[in-house]
Design a protein that fits this description.
homodimer; 5-stranded mixed sheet; 11 helices; Nucleotidyltransferase, domain 5; 2 domains
């Protein structure tokens, strides 16, 4: 059986045909048509489905389902995108719009973070697990929860906003307006900002030198690379980051007691340089004698496509 | 049908016969026999079951189940108490021990916080809800989670330790050894401690006066009463408490998005003086446009008995 999975992002639309072994057997992508009405976007997407059907030598009606991952929240009836700011989608009846092109193929919508967790469940770090948490460490914090072997969409279907758990009461302001959220302390953005501050405070240290003294050339990646190279300033920033992230993971571990926590996003590419001290830090703060596995997410850039293609299996 | 529910605490064993309408139709209690071997305790409990059977005019075998709530963690096979420090129970095979007295009546064990949430589910603040959180604000913090209409025991069955979510990274030390846990900032103990400090700092203020200048006479209740009476010092302590608790509730709301959060324990008796500002504070920090209901727990002292009696309905 073949399923269609769309990963719709603010810069790109990616789509794949996913088979029963979770392989992407055909794929397409195109820039997201920013500024166009949503029907235009849906038209492009429908064109992709027809082109992929042709490539696979089947009729589009043969696809088992069409799943769509969007970076925003989905209405509780799972028919509309309530807000996806990067897409400028607000109250968009995306399911019906896509359905109108393929009346006989069921269409499913999902939040991209939830969908990524579903991808890990069927094909990655969560295979065979019942309770698991995916955290993506990027510009912001994404989070997806698996409970009882299924995607958990929040008790009132508002979704899971793990990045807005309060980690430092009265701490630094978060973009959401609350102080001390996980997202204010555990993102690549935090690493970048601390690296930039260090350019001012320690102009002769490695971060500043490597950036040619230009704050704007400092990235989270540069801070991590300097820490790996043994620089004390970068090492201190990274140690604080690990300590903050360890507190966030301990919070989740103490509340949910997951079998596994998987980390994705740019910062997770630091590998064992991140994971080894993070496991130790989290376990130290975990109330239980052990905490679940803390591992890299496995699905990478294909998480959206594969997770979206699996949304049908999560329905009903 | 009649069910037996035990609420075993460090100072008292309470037991009741619970009918289908969640009424306690007969009850007994006795001091907990501290220092005796557990078989002695089980003997007392078995005696209660026989006495209650007699009082109800039935044979003990007619009881549908025996449920036991203990202040500790239960093994993942739900047969033993792993640690219940207040009872000095460590690796106690409580289910088998009770079962040996009544071979034909199924016996169930539960953590007291989980059991209290079950009581709210069947008879109190969580009736008809699928996703709900119970938080007891006492000397420590207790927490029970209902997910999908069922008691959530943690993904690895370690339980739910809501009190040890990190609320203030690098904050005050918690009894568990981690800094800034919910339990370090949201208990009656925190209110008491701040009240005591105020006796030193503000010896002429209301808290100190009412306590006759004696720190040891300051309680959370006194702090709340002085705040209610309009005292500025007590009011400031209470406002900080509400702000801290609001951050804790926002964390839970943003991760789980529960339909309802119920608060029990001594501090919750402050009533709307607590709940009104707490709702406002939590909503301000909640990522979603609304957060679930924030209400007083309803089951009070009978939560353990009724929840334990309902454990059978949660099994299987």
């Amino acid at each position: 059986m073949l399923q269609i999975g769309f990963d719709v992002g603010g810069s790109n639309i990616a789509v794949g045909v996913v088979d029963d072994d979770m392989r992407i057997v055909a794929r397409r992508s195109a820039p997201f048509p920013t500024g166009e009405p949503y029907s235009h976007t849906v038209g492009i997407m429908a064109g992709f489905v027809r082109a992929l059907a042709k490539e696979c030598g089947v009729d589009a009606r043969a696809f088992q389902s069409i799943g769509i991952a969007v970076p925003g929240n989905i209405s509780s009836d799972e028919a509309s995108v309530v807000h996806a700011y990067n897409l400028q989608f607000h109250h968009v009846p995306l399911r019906a719009a896509m359905q109108s092109h393929f009346p006989s193929v069921p269409v499913y919508l999902g939040n991209d973070a939830d969908v990524a967790a579903v991808a890990e469940l069927y094909a990655g770090a969560f295979k065979g697990r019942q309770t698991a948490v995916l955290i993506t460490l990027g510009t912001g914090i994404g989070g997806g929860l698996i409970v009882g072997g299924r995607m958990f969409k929040g008790g009132r279907k508002n979704g899971v906003e793990l990045g807005h758990m309060v980690l430092a009461h009265n701490g630094p302001m978060c973009t959401c307006g609350t102080r001390g959220c996980v997202e204010a302390l555990c993102t690549a953005t935090w690493l970048t900002r601390q690296g930039r501050i260090s350019v001012i405070e320690y102009p002769k240290a490695m971060i500043s030198t490597k950036a040619g003294g230009d704050m704007n050339r400092v990235s989270a990646r540069l801070v991590i690379d300097c820490a790996k190279a043994g620089d004390a300033i970068a090492g201190d920033i990274f140690a604080r980051y690990v300590d903050q992230l360890g507190s966030a993971l301990a919070s989740v571990a103490n509340l949910i007691d997951p079998e596994v926590i998987a980390l994705g996003g740019g910062v997770s590419l630091a590998g064992e340089f991140l994971f080894a001290p993070l496991r130790e830090n989290t376990l130290m703060k975990c109330f239980f004698d052990t905490c679940g596995d803390i591992v890299p997410a496995q699905m990478g850039n294909d998480a959206g496509i594969i997770g979206a293609a699996m949304l049908q299996r999560q329905s009903g």
